[in-house]
Amino acid sequence: MKLYGSPTSPYVRKARVLIHEKSMPVEFVIEDPWTEDSPIIDKNPLSKIPVLEIGPESYMFESNLVVHYLDHSDGKSLTPRDPAGYWQSQWWQSLGQGIIDAGITRAFENRRPEDKQMPEKKEREEKRIDRAIDLAEKTIKEGSEFLLGNRFGLADIVMGVAIQYTDFRYPNDWRSRAPKLAKWAAGITARPSFEETLPPGFEKPEGA
Ligand SMILES: N[C@@H](CCC(=O)N[C@@H](CS)C(=O)NCC(=O)O)C(=O)O
Question: What is the torsional sign of CA 141, 145, 150, 155?
Answer without folding.
Answer: positive
